[in-house]
Amino acid sequence: MASVVLTSLADADIAHIIGDLDRLAGASVAERYDANFDMLYRRLERHPDSGAPRPKLGAHVRIAAVSPYVVIYEHVEDDDVVMILRVVHGRRNITRKPC
């Protein structure tokens, strides 16, 4: 089973998303999204290569969705680590350039 690790950028993305949802849509919506992100992390522990590959973002980069958000991650097979790189809104133009 792979280990799931969030980068500081991804952690900040999640905190921002959950905070905005709490403020704009209420605590129950924010809690539901937080639980959905946790379910995705558990799935990635068991099936780290289940997301769609995105080779333009990096050799081992994949994406998964908690709609409308896109979780960008990299599976480092040698260490069996899933590194959550960023979590962005699906309408955002995603490039390799730092955000």
Write the layout of secondary structure elements.
Elements: E1 3-6, H1 8-25, H2 27-46, E2 52-53, E3 61-66, E4 69-76, E5 81-89
Parallel strand pairs: 1-5
Antiparallel strand pairs: 2-3, 3-4, 4-5
Keywords:
99 residues; alpha+beta; YaeB-like fold; five-stranded mixed beta sheet; 2 helices; globular
CATH class value = Alpha Beta
Shape: globular
User: Mind describing the biggest β-sheet?
Assistant: 5 strands, mixed
Strand runs, count: 5
Rg estimate, integer Å = 13 Å
Strand content: 25-35%
Total tally of structural domains: 1
A few lines on this structure:
The protein has helices spanning 8-25, 27-46; strands at residues 3-6, 52-53, 61-66, 69-76, 81-89.
Explain how this protein is built.
The chain has helices spanning 8-25, 27-46, and strands at residues 3-6, 52-53, 61-66, 69-76, 81-89. The chain is α+β, with helices and mostly antiparallel strands. The mean pLDDT is 92. 18% of the residues are buried. Helix 1 (8-25) runs antiparallel to helix 2. It has one domain (3-89): RelE-like (YaeB-like fold, 2-Layer Sandwich), CATH 3.30.2310.20. Strands 1-5-4-3-2 form a five-stranded mixed beta sheet. The radius of gyration is 13 Å and the shape is globular. 38% of the residues lie in helices and 29% in strands. It has two helices and five strands, in the order βααββββ.
